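Side project, low priority. Logging it here so it doesn't get lost.
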Amino acid sequence: MNDATGVFNRRSNRRKFLKNGMLAAGAATVGAGTLIGGLSAFGSDREEDGDRAPITKGDIAILTFLSALEQVEEDLWTQYSELGGVQDQEVSGQSGGNALYTAALQILDGDMAQYIHDNTDDEISHHRFLNNYLASKGAKKVDLSPFAQLKGSTADGSTGAKRITNLMQLTVDTSFWSRYRSITNPDFDPDAPFAQAVPSLNMKQHTAIPRSNADTKGSTISADPNNNPKSISTHLQAIAFTAGFHFAFIEQGGSSLYPTLAQKVTNLEVLRILLSIGPSETMHFQTWQDKAGNALPISDTDNGPGGTGATVTFSTLSQAQGETDPESLNGDTLQANLIMPEPTHFIDPGLKPVAIVRPTSTKFSGAVASVQSFVDDGLFIGQPKQFIDLLMDLANEADQAKREF
């Protein structure tokens, strides 16, 4: 993993990347450099509202990157759904679920299983739609499945399938919590001290799913229909609460990414796609930050089988600092029920604060920034360097897209 991070200090060369055969067998289909024929291949079939602008190479680069990232999200959400989601045939890979992990998640909200299921279904649909759209325009679909080589959970409920993402060694950035509760916009003040909602989650490595049945040992299902949290061990509660904050971390990235890349789109139909999918990511984020705020005040050290030795401590955010003078918050407020975005500075501070998604600049919320945030999160621990090279290469092309007139 340490070797892989060096790639972010330079711009990838796609042609050299493909020529050197750095992709696993079959994965070359995702290289955006292999997608582009003549521009005429991407001309829009639909001339709505007088839009005659063709789909450009930049548009295809953006759609290709988003499809790749949505497949990453599909993979991680499938793991969460297998263990903690509603078990039915709508979402693939179901094998009965893990009743104890599901009960631990329900401490955050009684409907968590349904929400996890639906979020998974949404991400699957995003990847499928973007791939189908690319194919309809003569571009190649994205397929990261050759990189599904990571071992996942062996706990009851897991299908045992190999994974693209690692949910068992996470370092979760929870600064999104105070960023949306502050007047400070990172696009204006990137050095603002946005407080971590759970500081210990942003240090060392933590698992967000039970790695094996050892992580659920000591927990029982209570006869109480509300799943009395006393029947769930502190260790399993900590794992579930880690997941709750990780859910929000993942979805806040999509909330910013889609409007950021939409500013680079040329074709109106492609713009419509980004403006339509993006808000669904924001709906996910709104849900998850609300549920995460219900975490109980507990502390747990991960010393069990396969444990990292890391300690995580959750505080009672419902009793945390609330609003005072909005101009003096400076990113410090942690009050749990402030789930609507506080007004912030945008475009020009002289225009007065406005409630918005933020950040929406390429530097802080573009494709490269999104991949880097996933790397920092630990999602790709165990993946070969060429996997991260590939994602960063796709991200660079998406960020370099420019709106054409």
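Brief comment: The beta strands are 299-301, 311-313.
Revisit when time allows.
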